[in-house]
Automatic annotation (TrEMBL), chain A:
Subcellular location: Cell membrane
GO molecular function: sodium:proton antiporter activity
InterPro entries recorded: MrpF/PhaF-like
Name of protein: Na(+)/H(+) antiporter subunit F
Membrane topology, record value: Multi-pass membrane protein
Membrane-traversing stretches: 6-25, 37-55, 61-82
GO cellular component, one term: plasma membrane
Similarity section: Belongs to the CPA3 antiporters (TC 2.A.63) subunit F family.
Main location: membrane
Keyword tags: Antiport, Cell membrane, Ion transport, Membrane, Transmembrane, Transmembrane helix, Transport
Phylogenetic placement of the source organism: Bacteria, Bacillati, Bacillota, Bacilli, Bacillales
TrEMBL record, chain C:
A Gene Ontology term for the protein's cellular component: plasma membrane
NCBIfam families: PRK08600.1 (NF006372), PRK12660.1 (NF009303)
Compartments where located: Cell membrane
Lineage: Bacteria, Bacillati, Bacillota, Bacilli, Bacillales
Annotated keywords: Cell membrane, Membrane, Transmembrane, Transmembrane helix
The protein's name: Na(+)/H(+) antiporter subunit C
Similarity field: Belongs to the CPA3 antiporters (TC 2.A.63) subunit C family.
Annotated source species: Cytobacillus horneckiae
From TrEMBL, chain E:
Protein family membership: Belongs to the CPA3 antiporters (TC 2.A.63) subunit B family.
Lineage: Bacteria, Bacillati, Bacillota, Bacilli, Bacillales
PANTHER family: NA(+)/H(+) ANTIPORTER SUBUNIT B, NA(+)_H(+) ANTIPORTER SUBUNIT B
Subcellular location: Cell membrane
Membrane-crossing residue ranges in chain numbering: 12-31, 37-59, 71-92, 112-137
Protein name: Na(+)/H(+) antiporter subunit B
GO cellular component: plasma membrane
Keyword entries, A-Z: Cell membrane, Membrane, Transmembrane, Transmembrane helix
Residues in Na+/H+ antiporter MnhB subunit-related protein domain copies: 8-131
Organism: Cytobacillus horneckiae
Automatic annotation (TrEMBL), chain F:
UniProt domain MrpA C-terminal/MbhD: residue ranges: 639-703
Domain MrpA C-terminal/MbhE residue range list: 722-796
NADH:quinone oxidoreductase/Mrp antiporter transmembrane domain boundaries: 130-423
Keywords annotated in UniProt: Antiport, Cell membrane, Hydrogen ion transport, Ion transport, Membrane, Sodium, Sodium transport, Transmembrane, Transmembrane helix, Transport
Protein's name according to its UniProt entry: Na+/H+ antiporter subunit A
Stored PANTHER family: NA(+)/H(+) ANTIPORTER SUBUNIT (PTHR43373), NA(+)_H(+) ANTIPORTER SUBUNIT A (PTHR43373:SF1)
Organism from which the protein derives: Cytobacillus horneckiae
């Protein structure tokens, strides 16, 4: 029962990941691509959740959390770079 | 179980790390580097003693029996290489005291140097394929750091090539491990050997062997040496010397280990390929050596020739060939370090590495000149210096196994080597003296000690070849008879 | 699965190789990164995939996938990270010092 | 038994809803005209989507496996916390790096503010 | 260039960093029985620091963490090595790890393993490395 | 270490002290006086062997060097060795005596000179007294090296260096050939001892390596003895100071080849190959040397070519004599044994007269400042003693009585005439050439001998062409040539003095069979009736005189020979070509362009690995135990491939980085699918940190927007790159498929599943990392630490800033 539901859910998730990949390829601007990256990250969290249910294991929860954290950090880094050309600032530069 | 086995890795590692912590204490760095080299040397000497009297020494790290844990194994070949490494590195580091410069010293020269030695020693000791990869990486990362140390433009330019080639080599190493694991399901070399012997070295196994050969050839500069001349001419002399002496030898050692311990069943395929590669290496290397009038280039191509010659002994896969190779391997480590050091001193004095711009140095530096002369003879295997025994037995080995062409190429290239180094001697030391002492840009002060010591070593290795014989014989026995190694590592738990 | 993975890995290798063969340093580094993914996936594929639960005891599984390749890959990833870091810094230093990131201009025969 | 089955169904449905949200956001990601509008789709609906999915997972594991994972809760919290910030930063960076608005956009209020700021800067 | 307004980011960062630190420590100690361990814990910790770098700047973070990360790295590796040496003094092979279960007053039955010490070394080395690399590059102008 | 060894090694030992002596005493006493002691002592020591040797005994002493390999310094003194030993030390003593007057103690670097000379002497002694072939080889190379140093004694001169290099290259080449020949010999006989080889001649002769070994050993001998076509080094070696030329080219260095041939005659001799090679090359050299000597204008050049030709003569005699071994013993054997006798006798004679002549030339050079025949003349009255010595030497060389050269020349003629009647060895075909060549060459020998004497000492004295005013040399300088000249005469009148004591035992050493089985008729007489030989000599004198007188009329022939195909020109251009070809070849593949290197790397990877896969026929496909595939996995794979292609085709760098990030996320997703939580975690963190690093470094790399502009021109599409990359992909895939289908063993991983019991850890991967394979992790963080330091130094230490 739940397997079927999960499969359908996974199907949608995969479609949205592919959509994000399309956006990644297509662009046209860099922020679009960063957006796609962020989106893929979020979708992967969901995907891992579903797979965890498939496998009946809680082993991947920390992966999800870390993915959340890191996709956030990654997005910030890109945003920073796009905005200022610098990722990390040092005091002297200000 | 023998914890001394691990010391050659641990000593330089710990002392190097201590140096990192006390960064500004240069004197401490120097003392610790000498201490570390003598320490590893001492450990190696003790290991040699033990191996001779008690057989191959092993350490199952963490107490996990092979093949599940990582085994550290010292057989005679490793032990000999360890002690040679320590000695050579000791003199290189002493040479560095005077030549490397304050800034590099403060930027972790000595720790990085010791880390390099850690990697080299680790590669000699380990009995596990993946651990070999890790040790390679320790060595390589340190070498990346050392080759770029100082960040001069030529260093940066050449190190990019060096780094990239080695990164790719590491990838190939990993895929080779992956394939190996898929087919055999184990990583321990002794266990591998047993498993390969059990099913026979079939086609796929030979193909795996070829990938390993390819990877190690890249490291050793066997046939795939194109990265070598550039990268060895970029770093400061002390570094170049230790590179020339040690880095390629690790690759050679690995080839030896694999093709005597694991993939020894199809020598008519694998060893013939090694032989052909060795021949091409020697020819191309020798051609490179005679082609240029630049000291650094000549010397680096000589490194290439040496590699080919050593592996010609393995290709022969006979007792004589192996004996010769081991002698020659030790000789080559000493002599390459030495000739790079002397070359560096010459370049420092003349302020250029172009032979056309120097002349008559023997007038002002007679001792240096004669040291170079002896080195030059030794490098081309002129008796009774250290290269001689190796040359004779490698040649005999190739003849015995019917590879006459290989032996002939070895001898002819040794003549070309002689020509190339004598070109340096005749151009830089002979001729009219054009440089007065005031005009010199460098000095021999303080660097003669390591040079003299290494020259003594090369003479001693030649005249005292008998002293080494017992050990080399044990080493050859170990190489030609893999069951000794397997027995020592797996003991009774062989599956 | 393993067969499909093998093909995927082959594609990674091909793309990575092509990138490494280009002139720009950055592309070369990108190429090494892609190949490194290929290598890691290759190791885990060669260890056999999906043969059991995650290699964690006490979560109810009784059979486990081969944990050894995972440990190896972990080490390999870290080492690859270290190498990539060095390579990146090296290339930007070279760009600063040599004024180019085009490897065709780094032949180095001119000033000797 | 019945609790378990119910929980499975509840979890499954939650997850399905989540994935549909994600899918919708993906459609938005493809169809919308410029980065700013796409950002809405991407951040809002996909956050909702992942939340549903995670809650579904949480329910499943709590009831079915008897595992209450604080990490899962943390994930939910964290995604909730950071997704808007990410979206905000992306948009801002897009704007600052001069990514054009869609042709159909009506008004750019920020422009006026920034132009003013820049003028001040120029004066200093 | 006028410094952009980072209030939103910084506000969130403060919360996020706390979460990440906690998570990192959790990952670190979970390592022996769950996914995680010194390496990942260390890197997650480093990720938190990176986040701080991103939303603040190098010097203000450095002011809060007055550590020479190069030394930290070396110390980390040293700890790992010396843990390995521990076995040698008991005439056991190098890197022999020991573990046992103790009854401690507060924690109850607790497993103490030298592997944890080893992992601490790993974590320190990883944090140190990541920080050295990131800081060195971002300081270079 | 026996006294014998000490005597052989004492030159080396003494050489160490020479610089010291030079430093202490040279201002007062010429260093040569100290050095002179050495050869004299050894000479006297060797003389003590004569009685024993002549009665058929031999001395043998062994000194361990590398006994485990059977490489021992087995000193063996028999007749042959003794003759050479006496020559080496005897002539050596005279040469040193001569050099004391020749080389000024103020101007010359005497410490170097005598060190080289002593090394050379020691090497020669070791060479002739070694029974062990490897030790013999050691000394052989030492002679090459020390002669290299001696020839380049005036290292400031370009020509000296050229000559030294040439002689070194050629003789060491020969040495290497000889070494490989020796190795083959030892493979055949399983010993390094020459004497033991004598007992296994049958094994050697029947062995398939017999011919190669023989040729290789002969190459060694021929290069050293300056046989055609290796003779070219000798004339250039004349750049050495004259005492050196006298020593190296009359008595020692070049005789080493003769010694070698004589020594190995019992091993190889008696076969037609050996016979033809040795005697044939010898005769060609004889002719070549004598013809070329005539055209020389430099006195030392003339002597050089004459040396070449005389060595050819000796060599051909040895070849002819080797026929004796074919016959074993008996009359015919004795007939050819006479050739060996002649060879050794002539060698001794050659040492005496050639030594004297070199010294004479040295005196002329020293006193007049030139050796050019065209500038010399009329010195007879100014330098009467020198002239006398020159006449004796030259006439002996030309084979005139009453000098020793006459005797050995007669014996030579006798041998070639005898051998032309031989029916074995296909002598019936070309055998007739032997006496003809010998005779023609002798005519030329006569001519150049006359040139040497008369052009220098007769004719008009031309002081204006000389740098110095000529006068007779100091008596000290004359002592040595006078001694040698008197020996020339004495040997003529009392040939059997050396015949009995030296020649017999040495012939016995060369032809052991004869020594054992027959009493040799070895009586040398100056007069042996009106026989063919005598008529030949008379003919030589008649035609020689005629041609000498008409020299100017026909000397133009020499100029017709094109310079470009002389051996010298061939050598020079070969050396140049070797270097320039090497350079162009090396430059061709060592482009310094990283792309090329990587292309080689991958190209050879495809070639080697793909090739092996195909050749060993090990490509297989077996998907039977594959894991099942889900649709989302395929979709993710598609996504990954798309992301990877985006990296490849991205026009901007940031796009590439972002795509790489996506790729990393997807890879970690696969790790999740493959049940590897730890890996997924690590991959994620590392991916993110790497991305951050990329971005950090971006600041320093060319700006993003410029880059877009630049790259819009297109990433040029390279077909070769494409082929290589597809090749790599295909090879990796094929290999992976084959390996996957060929799982031969159960992996060892099962063991780790007990990790909780063994290591107290429930996370198997972590248990492996920190415990089972803790060393990997330890080294891995070590790698990280080094990387951190490396990055730090890279950024902080920039010596390049100072370069500019």
């Amino acid at each position: 029962m739940i397997e079927t539901l999960l499969m359908i859910a996974l199907f949608f998730l995969v479609l949205s990941i592919l959509a994000a990949v399309y956006r990644l390829v297509k662009g046209p601007s860099i922020p679009d691509r960063v957006q796609a990256l962020d989106n893929i990250g979020v979708n992967l969290i969901a995907g891992i959740a579903i797979i965890s249910i498939f496998m009946r294991t809680s082993a991947f929860f920390s992966v999800m959390l870390l993915l959340g954290i890191l996709s956030f950090i990654g997005t910030i880094a890109f945003a920073r770079f796009l905005e200022r050309g610098v990722v990390i600032e040092s005091e002297r530069n200000k | 179980m023998n914890n001394i086995v691990i010391l050659p890795i641990i000593i330089p590692m710990i002392l190097g790390l201590i140096m990192v912590i006390f960064r500004r204490r240069i004197m401490l760095h120097r003392v610790l580097s000498i201490l570390s080299m003598t320490g590893t040397g001492g450990a190696a000497a003790y290991l040699i003693y033990q191996v001779k009297h008690e057989g191959i020494q092993t350490l199952q790290l963490g107490g996990w029996e092979a093949p599940f844990g990582v085994s550290m194994v010292v057989d005679m070949l490793s032990a000999l290489l360890l002690i040679t490494t320590s000695i050579v590195a000791l003199f290189c580091v002493i040479y560095a005291f005077k030549s490397i410069g304050r800034e590099r010293e403060e930027h972790y020269f000595y720790p990085l140097f010791l880390f390099l030695i850690t990697g080299v020693n680790g590669s000699f000791i380990t009995g596990d394929v993946f651990n070999l990869f890790v040790c390679f990486e320790v060595m390589l990362i340190s070498s990346y750091a050392l080759i770029t140390l100082g960040g001069k433009s030529i260093q940066l330019r050449e190190s990019i090539k060096y780094v990239l080639v080695n990164i790719i080599a590491s990838f190939l190493f990993l895929i080779a491990i992956a394939y190996l694991y898929a087919v055999t399901g184990t990583l321990n070399m002794a266990h591998l050997s047993e498993r390969v012997a059990e099913v026979g070295q079939g086609g796929l196994m030979t193909a795996v062997a070829i990938i390993f050969l390819f990877v190690f050839s890249l490291k050793a500069g066997l046939f795939l040496f194109f990265w070598l001349p550039g990268s060895y001419s970029a770093p400061p002399t002390a570094v170049a010397a230790v590179f020339a002496a040690l880095l390629t030898k690790v690759g050679i050692y690995a080839i030896y280990r694999f093709f005597t311990l694991v993939f020894y069943h199809e020598p008519q395929v694998t060893h013939l390929i090694i032989g052909i590669m060795a021949a091409v290496t020697m020819v191309l290397g020798a051609m490179g050596a005679i082609a240029y009038k630049d000291i650094k280039k000549i010397l680096t191509y000589n490194v290439v020739v040496g590699v080919g010659f050593i592996l010609a002994g393995l290709a022969s896969f006979t007792d004589a060939g192996m004996t010769g190779s081991i002698y020659y391997l030790m000789h080559d480590m000493v002599i390459k370090a030495l000739i790079f050091i002397i070359g560096g001193v010459i370049i420092a004095i003349a302020g250029t590495s172009n032979l056309d711009d120097m002349s008559g140095l023997i007038q002002t530096h007679p001792y240096l000149g004669w040291m170079f002369f002896i080195t030059a003879l030794s490098i081309s295997g002129i008796p009774p210096l250290s290269g001689f025994i190796g040359k004779v037995y490698i040649t005999e080995g190739t003849f015995t196994s019917g590879y006459y062409w290989l032996g002939a190429i070895g001898l002819i290239t040794s003549l070309m080597v002689l020509f190339s180094v004598m070109k340096i001697f005749m151009n830089s030391f002979w001729g009219e003296t054009i440089l007065s002492e005031e005009m010199e840009k460098g000095t021999t002060r303080g660097v003669m000690f390591p040079i003299v010591a290494l020259v003594m070593l090369t003479i001693g290795l030649g005249l005292g070849a008998e002293l080494l014989h017992d050990y080399v014989e044990i080493a050859v026995e170990g190489l030609m008879n893999p069951s000794l190694y397997i027995e020592a590592v797996l003991g009774g738990n062989a599956q | 699965m393993e067969s499909l993975m093998s093909i995927l890995i082959g594609v990674f290798f091909a793309i990575g190789t092509y990138l490494i063969l280009t002139k720009s340093l950055l592309r070369i580094i990108l190429g090494t990164s892609i190949i490194s993914h290929g290598v890691h996936l290759l190791i885990i594929t060669m260890g056999g995939v999906k043969a059991g639960g995650p290699p964690l005891l006490g979560l109810g599984s009784t059979s486990f996938t081969d944990a050894l390749p995972q440990a190896l890959i972990l080490t390999a990833i870290v080492i690859n990270f270290a190498t990539t870091a060095i390579f990146l810094v090296l290339s930007y230093r070279s760009y600063k010092v040599l004024g180019t990131d085009d490897t065709a201009q780094m032949r180095g025969n001119e000033d000797e | 038994m019945s609790l378990s089955v119910t929980s499975e169904i509840v979890a499954g449905v939650l997850i399905l809803i989540g994935s549909i949200f994600s899918f919708l956001s993906a459609i938005g990601l493809i169809r919308l005209p410029d980065v700013y509008t796409r950002s809405h789709a991407a951040s809002k609906s996909s956050t909702i989507g992942v939340l549903f999915t995670l809650v579904g997972t949480l329910v499943f594991f709590v009831i079915h496996e008897g595992v209450f994972s604080i990490r899962l809760l943390l994930v939910i919290f964290f995604v909730f916390l950071t997704a808007p910030v990410s979206a905000h930063l992306i948009c801002r960076s897009a704007y600052r790096s001069d990514v054009p608005l869609a042709k159909s956009s009506v008004k750019d209020e920020l422009k006026e503010v920034l132009v003013g700021e820049n003028r001040e800067e120029g004066r200093q | 260039m006028k410094k952009p307004n980072d209030i939103i980011l910084r506000g969130v960062t403060k919360v996020a960093v706390v979460i990440i630190f906690t998570f990192a420590i959790n990952l670190f100690f979970a390592g022996h029985h769950n996914p995680g361990g010194g390496f990942i814990g260390g890197l997650a910790f480093a990720a938190a620091l990176t986040l701080m770098f991103l939303s603040y700047d190098v010097d203000s973070v450095r002011a809060n963490f007055p550590v020479d990360f190069k030394v930290l790295t070396a110390v980390g590796v040293l700890i790992a090595v010396l843990t390995g040496m521990g076995g040698v003094f008991f005439d056991l092979p190098f890197l022999t790890q020991a573990f046992d279960y103790f009854h401690l007053p507060i924690f109850g039955k607790t497993e103490l393993a030298t592997a944890v010490l080893f992992d601490i070394g790993v974590a320190l080395a990883v944090i140190g490395t990541a920080m050295v690399i990131i800081m060195t590059i971002s300081e270079d102008r | 270490m026996s006294l014998l060894h000490i005597m052989i090694l004492i030159p080396f030992i003494f050489a160490i002290f020479v610089p010291l002596l030079y430093k202490l005493f040279n201002s007062r006493i010429h260093t040569g006086w100290f050095v002179l002691i050495i050869p004299v002592v050894i000479f006297i020591y060797l003389l003590r062997f004569i009685p024993g040797i002549s009665s058929g005994e031999a001395a043998y002493q062994s000194l361990n060097w590398i006994p485990s390999f059977g490489i021992n310094f087995d000193a063996y003194v028999d007749g042959l060795g003794l003759v050479f030993g006496l020559l080496i030390t005897g002539i050596g003593a005279l040469v040193i005596l001569y050099s004391i007057y020749y080389l000024s103690k103020e101007k010359e670097a005497l410490h170097n000179f005598y060190v080289y000379l002593l090394m050379f002497m020691g090497a020669m002694l070791g060479l002739v007294f070694s029974d062990n072939i490897l030790v013999l080889y050691v000394f052989w190379e030492l002679t090459s090296i020390s002669s290299f140093l001696l020839i380049a004694y005036w290292y400031q001169r370009e020509k000296s260096r050229y000559g030294a290099q040439k002689s070194m290259l050629i003789t060491i080449f020969g040495g290497l050939a000889m070494l490989s020949g020796f190795i083959m010999l030892s493979m055949m006989t399983d010993t390094y001892s020459i004497r033991e080889m004598f007992t296994q001649v049958d094994t050697i002769t029947g062995h398939s390596l017999f011919i190669p070994a023989m040729i290789l050993v002969l190459i060694g001998a021929f290069t050293k003895s300056a046989q055609f076509p290796f003779s070219i080094w000798l004339p250039d070696a004349m750049e050495a100071p004259t005492p050196i030329s006298a020593y190296l080219h009359s008595a020692t260095m070049v005789k080493a080849g003769i010694y070698l041939v004589a020594r190995f005659t019992p091993v190889f001799g008696g076969t037609s190959e050996w016979f033809w090679l040795v005697s044939g090359i010898g005769l060609i050299t004889l002719l070549y040397g004598s013809v070329n000597a005539v055209r020389q204008t430099d006195l030392k050049g003339l002597l050089a070519y004459s040396t070449i030709s005389q060595l050819g003569l000796i060599m051909s005699l040895l070849g002819i004599g080797s026929a004796a071994l074919y016959f074993g013993y008996g009359d015919e054997a004795d007939l050819y044994a006479a050739a060996i006798t002649a060879a050794i006798f002539h060698m001794i004679n050659h040492s005496t007269f050639k030594g004297a002549l070199f010294m004479v030339v040295g005196i002329v050079d020293h006193e007049t400042g030139t050796r050019d025949i065209r500038r010399l003349g009329g010195l007879m009255t100014i330098m009467p003693i020198t002239f006398t010595v020159a006449v004796i030497g030259a006439f002996s060389m030309a084979g005139l009585p009453p000098f020793n050269g006459f005797l050995s020349k007669e014996m030579f003629f006798a041998s070639v005439v005898d051998v032309s009647n031989l029916t074995e060895f296909n002598m019936d075909t070309f055998g007739i050439l032997f006496p003809i060549i010998a005779w023609v060459a002798s005519v030329f020998t006569f001519i150049y001998s006359m040139i040497l004497v008369f052009k220098t000492f007769r004719g008009k004295y031309k002081p204006e062409r000389l740098e110095k005013k000529a006068h007779e040399a100091p008596i000290g300088m004359l002592i040595s040539p006078i001694i040698l000249a008197s020996l020339v005469v004495i040997f003529f009148f009392f040939p059997n003095m050396i015949g009995d004591y030296l020649l017999k035992p040495s012939v016995a050493a060369v032809l052991p069979a004869i020594a054992e089985n027959s009493i040799m008729d070895m009586y040398i007489t100056p007069w042996h009736g009106w026989n063919t030989e005598l008529f030949m000599t008379i003919g030589v004198i008649a035609l020689g005189t005629l041609m000498y007188i008409s020299l100017r009329k026909w000397a133009g022939i020499y100029r017709m020979y094109p310079q470009s195909i002389t051996l010298n020109a061939i050598y020079n251009s070969a050396l140049d070509k070797a270097q320039s070809w090497s350079a162009s070849l090396t430059d061709k593949y060592m482009t310094g362009y990283i792309r090329d290197y990587i292309a080689y790397l991958f190209g050879f990877f495809i070639l080697f690995v793909g090739g092996t896969l195909i050749v060993t026929n090990s490509i297989s496909f077996d998907a039977s135990n594959n894991a099942p595939v889900n649709f989302y996995e395929i979709a993710l794979m598609v996504a990954m491939i798309v992301a990877a292609f985006t990296v490849l085709l991205a026009k901007s760098r940031l796009t590439a980085i972002i795509s790489l990030g996506v790729l990393g996320y997807l890879v970690s997703m696969f790790f999740v699918i493959f049940r590897a939580p730890d890996l997924a975690l690590t991959q994620l963190v590392v991916e993110t940190v790497t991305t951050a690093l990329f971005l950090l470094c971006f600041y320093h790399l060319p700006r993003f927007k410029e880059q877009v502009h630049k790259e819009k021109k297109g990433v040029p599409f390279k077909p070769l790159n494409l082929i290589i990359s597809i090749g790599v992909g295909v090879v990796v895939t094929l290999f992976a498929l084959s390996a996957n289908g060929t799982r031969l063993f159960e992996p060892i991983a099962g063991f780790y599943e007990d990790s909780y019991k063994l290591a107290g850890a429930k996370n198997i991967v972590n248990a492996i990392l920190v415990d089972f394979r803790g060393i990997d992790t330890m080294l891995e963080i070590f790698v990280l630490c080094i990387a951190a330091l490396s990055v730090y130094t890279l950024v902080k230490l920039g010596l390049s800033r100072r370069e500019k």
